[in-house]
Each structure stands twice: as C-alpha cells, then as structure tokens.
Design goal:
single chain; two-stranded antiparallel sheet; five-stranded antiparallel β-sheet; mainly beta; 0% helix; 84 residues
Length: 84
C-alpha cells in the first residue's frame, strides 16, 4: 500500500506500508478497513495535505478505479491539516 500526503504548491510526506491482510485474501468489490499511525515528519510545513492512496507491485502502481477522484492510479481518499 502507498499513502502520499501532498500539499498544493509543493510538499509531501508518505506513509507507505504493508496491507493489514495479504492482497491474495482480498476479493473484488470487498472493502477492507484498517487504521495505521502516521508520523508527520519534523519540519513539515503547515497546510492542508490531500491523502492519495493505492497499491503497487515491484516498481509499478496497480490500476485503480472507483467513485473517488483518481489520478495516476492514486485514489484521493481524504485530507489532513498540519498545524504548528
């Protein structure tokens, strides 16, 4: 899994990780929900960061589709506000 937090105008941090369950257990149309802790790196500029997530294998992103905005096989799934 990859999770990229990106700020308009530049700036990002990542929370890439192994999925909660092996992908071989997943079925088409199934929703898998789980939580991870994300550490905002020290010195990250304040602002709104959009969370774009998806899957990859090797060095390639897996195809993404769904009811949310998707660009470059990354689904826009939320946002966080980084404050000082």
């Amino acid at each position: 899994m990859f999770a990229h937090f990106e700020r308009a105008g530049g700036g990002q941090f990542r929370a890439d990780h192994a999925p909660a369950r092996p992908l071989s257990w997943w079925r088409a149309g199934q929703f898998i929900r789980y939580a991870i802790d994300v550490v905002v790196p020290r010195g990250t500029p304040p602002g709104r960061y959009v969370l774009r997530a998806g899957l990859w294998r090797g060095d390639r992103r897996r195809p993404a589709r769904g009811p949310v905005p998707i660009v470059d096989d990354r689904a826009e799934v939320g946002a966080v506000e980084v404050v000082r």
